[in-house]
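lol ok so funny story. i was supposed to be doing the assay writeup but got distracted and ended up predicting the structure for this chain instead. priorities right. anyway since i did it might as well share w the group, maybe its usefull for someone
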Amino acid sequence: MSRRRRGNTLEKWEVALIKAMLARKGSNDQDILAYFTRPTRSVNHRAIGEIRTEKKHKAIKPATSEELDAFLATWPDVTFVNMKGGGHSYIIEDGSEADC
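and the output, tada:
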């Protein structure tokens, strides 16, 4: 079992992406956090607020629009979750189905 790292600090490139997401608007803190949190790494929503107010990471510049677009393009847009036969099946934006 993986051990959780205390603090779960964000890398500089992640902070740059978060700053670009905040500047672009359209995403709330929870949406942004979803890109950087996983089962072995929980990031507190407070981190987004500290980046927004520049309480932390003030010196880090936002990622470019192109860098943000490239990052976001790596994530599929899951639009529907279908439970069948006790398993889970996800319908991806392009219509393909992924079992897990």
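The chain has a mean pLDDT of 79. Helices lie at 12-24, 29-34, 46-52, 65-73.
back to the writeup now i swear
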